[in-house]
What does this fold into?
Amino acid sequence: MKSLVLSQWDLPLLPTIALLIFISLFVGVLWWVTREKNKSTYEEIKFLPLKEGNNHE
Amino acid sequence: MTTSKLESFRYDDKIVKFFIIATMVWGAVAMLLGVTIAFQLADWRLNLGLEWMTFGRMRPLHTNAAIFAFAGNGIFAGVYYSMQRLCKARLFSDKLSRVHFWGWQLIIVSAAISLLSGATTGKEYAELEWPIDIAITVIWVVFAVNFFGTLFNRREKHIYVAIWFYIATIITVAVLHIVNSLEFPVSFMKSYSIYAGVQDALVQWWYGHNAVAFFLTTPFLGLMYYFIPKAAKRPVYSYRLSIIHFWSLVFIYIWAGPHHLLYSSLPNWVQTLGMVFSVALWAPSWGGMINGLLTLRGAWDQVRREPMLKFMAAAVTFYGMATFEGPLLSIKSFNSLAHYTDWIVGHVHSGTIGWNYFLIAGILYYLVPQLWRTKIYSKELGQMQFWTATIGLALYIVSMWIAGVTQGLMWRAVEPDTGNLVYPHFIETVVRIVPMYWVRAIGGTLVLISFIMMIYNLYKTIKNAGEHEEEVFQAPAIEKSKGFLFFKKHRELEGLPLIFTILVVIAIGVGSAIEIIPSLVSTKFIQKNEAITPYTPLELAGRDIYIREGCYTCHSQMIRPMAAETMRYGKYSKAAEFVYDRPFQWGSRRIGPDIARVGGKYPHMWHYRHMWDPREVTLDSIMPKYPWLFSKKTDYQVLPKKLKVMAALGVPYGSEQIENAVANAKEQAEEIIAALEEGGVENKMKDKQIVALIAYLQRLGVEGRDIEDESTQEEEE
It folds into this structure.
């Protein structure tokens, strides 16, 4: 089994670096979006499509 | 950031109307082409014996029309409408908008003419030749300047998530198009890729898959995040989830390209990486899908009544289904069955019809009444369109599932007692699925009819609309800051587009660099072998005819290392065999058999008769006839130039070979015609294109039969 896995993974360094970058990025984004501080901003932004500017004519 | 007094402005909705009309026109053309080629597969006689009507030339036109003409114009309509409103600003430049519109339409017309006339690079979804590639780049830059200019002039401090998706689209499509289209011109409409063989395959499918990702997915997700809340009159379910969706999708998608090349000569680690990231795509794709559907919470009664919302809800559902199926098909063991079969074709259409067409339909049903200040002509007709399209699509997908699984299983079926193939003749597996081709053609026709219903409905809506004034809107301006570049008083969030763009470039750059650069710069993965020699001038001429006729749309040139494949086609393909292939011609679908080792398998006369009428050698063949190859002459005079360009790209042609290219080609043609004369072919045929094509076909896989696989050698050592 081990040799089967390794035969498909003949250059482990770069993919491992890639996975670490992805996990760091994912955890970072997760932390950022769940910050309590950002909640009110997101609540404001989510309504943007429903506002087109004030139509005065 | 401080705000100042209210400013009045108008939106440029005229350009949105232009793109809407273009979307309807090209959508009908793309679907008509699709239906035509579907019927051609069901009955080969519908190729009509005309060179510009053959499946090999029409199929690239269908895919290009569906992706770049139909979906492209739909994207631009939606982006220009939503950008202005999300930024509370008119588009940056009316002139650039017009250049963008007319330039894009000109590109589409040029693409249609060139593809039907046989001018093609032979790389799927990137078939357009170098002058059109340059035009695409210029027009894309025009779009980008107009887009980022609008973003810079915005009166809204926040950048809504839809705009994030648009930014990712603009940046990534530019990178993909430029890198994959690097080619060396031979003449006005002929070029050779700077990449060869395995490297070309890797770059091409990095492009090909991400054309799906960043042309047919990210812009549509941006449109989804804008238009579903608009149509349902409620905000997106979770803005937080949309941010996680965006970053995960942008980072992961770029890695998935190699899943198109599983079990090929691509290095194993790249294949595995492509598979792992494809499976990982499940999470962000479904996160986005759930976010889209939950935005409709509490509005399901409207979904029942409004065709607009019905199309949007169905589009998001099909997005979910397609993005479930995609990762599944990327799993190596699963892919070994489904690859090269119609299952992939069904999967692609569940995305382009179910997701792209349906979302565009939903958006058009929203936009047309809004822009022309009227009501939709007939909601009943919209409902009828929805169900016609849905039934048509269901017939399409199910027939392709059945055809794909049937053919995949037949290819690999082995007699338990003897170990021989149960269906050794490829044609047996074709005949079995032809009934499904009829079902697919009927399904496709229903989809086309549904689209025509929409055109009629929207035409009547527009016609019934009265004259109206352009609306004036007001929003507070964002105060301009003083200073220069980084030294100026920073306008806090105004800097975000730049920072954001850099982050996107990093996100797509990591995956691209790690997957592609090692294979481009290292000789470890693709070792040259002395047994493999460059094509002779006549073989090269034949190869260009093979590319011109789009043979790769039906025949692969890649034997996978599986028992059923090596029994059927011969020794599996190795990376070293393709080092002179510019472009690579591995293909993605086997409507006919693999021909990687067809060289020497049959006599010249077999090929001669096969190209004249395939039924002469294979009774039930569905391949078209190629009579023009027997009347058109081979262009010998261009051969020295072709060899010279190839030499400049690194192919070891000496100056003597280049000088003597014409004489060498004619000499080889004499040898072939001598053999054909024994079968009654006249000597005067020696200059015809059929002879050059035979030279190429008889060369395929011959030299590679006896070379050793370097990786196998290493393991044995």
User: Anything to note?
Assistant: The CA atoms of residues 125 and 140 of chain B lie 17 Å apart.
